[in-house]
Write a structure and sequence with these properties.
The structure is a homodimer.
Chain A: H1 15-24, H2 31-42, E1 47-48, H3 49-55, H4 63-75, E2 79-83, E3 89-93, E4 103-107, E5 113-116, H5 122-132, E6 135-146
Parallel strand pairs in A: 4-6
Antiparallel strand pairs in A: 1-3, 2-3, 4-5
Helix pairs in contact in A: 3-4
Chain B binds a DNA duplex through helix 4.
DNA sequence: GCGCTTGTTGCAAATCGTTTGCAAATGGAG
DNA sequence: CTCCATTTGCAAACGATTTGCAACAAGCGC
């Protein structure tokens, strides 16, 4: 799974650096939060809440706490939330300073995810915004297809 | 509302033509289905299930029937399903032969929707597919921003 | 027109993902 | 160590959507 991930993931921050980011915003560094960050750090893929919860090992922390933690981490800019075709939200750890704007190519059959560097041309986006009088325009873009193994 | 819609909507088919499409695939032309098609025809916007259900007037047809009808119409290629940032699915009537591939610019504040003709460059999409060994790659693309009235 | 067969509907209950209220537990500043 | 605001677990509430099932009706053949 991890091996199939084509995007070269930077080494990323260690747990200490991540928890430091929490502390800096005067958020408490609790066991559930550390555990969640550790899991996200181990998986460079967009993880679903269920997957995160599953890895926590039953009895470790409540599902509601996972939801609450993901909101917190999202608002702090530590993770980014994605939505694919099916199922609930998925989350990816962000490096500090990274706005997390990138896209995915998802296999319709096995859900394998590849990160994509290409992006919708920004001049085109600006033109679309201008033409319609919109401001602060961003976009959401995901690709779907059949991966080599599933064809 | 309709006036704000920038996309020149073709006259579209009348109810008779639409119901004919149902008949051709040996599906029954029932009152709920006709009512739903009529509503979709009146609104060139992506409508939510709740909006459709609301327009039906209480007592006219069950909510479950609306959900079932939308699946049917989607599978027959009569409507297209969209997902924006919040809330449930939204549906738009498709002209016959139209694959419905187009995108939207949605106001983050008032949900106003504008249709966009631009699309992600297909050469770029092909390159992404090739580079990752994927087949049958399509994409989903939506824009979000602040409309003139909401800025 | 009349019934038959099969697709369709209404209703209620189930499911899925997510959120919330509340009292008990706890991180960390002083 | 104490205190307090934040966080947690638990259970219940929620919104969107799906499903089982018995009653029903569209459109075929006669």
């Amino acid at each position: 799974m991890s091996a199939a991930h084509s995007h070269a993931q930077s080494p990323g921050e260690g747990l200490p650096e991540l928890t430091e980011r929490l502390r800096r915003k005067s958020r408490k560094v609790t066991a559930p939060r550390q555990a969640i960050l550790a899991i996200l750090r181990r998986h460079p893929h967009p993880l679903s809440i269920r997957e995160i919860f599953g890895e926590l090992g039953r009895g470790n922390c409540d599902l509601a706490t996972v939801y609450r933690s993901m909101h917190l981490l999202e608002n702090m800019g530590i993770v980014k939330r994605f939505h694919f075709e099916q199922g609930g939200a998925r989350f990816e750890l962000l490096d500090e300073g990274d706005d997390g704007h990138h896209h995915h190519l998802v296999c319709r059959s096995c859900d394998e995810v590849v990160e994509i560097e290409d992006c919708f041309p920004s001049e085109l986006e600006k033109r679309i915004a201008r033409r319609n009088g919109f401001k602060s325009v961003t976009h959401r873009l995901e690709f779907f297809g059949l991966c080599p193994r599933c064809q």
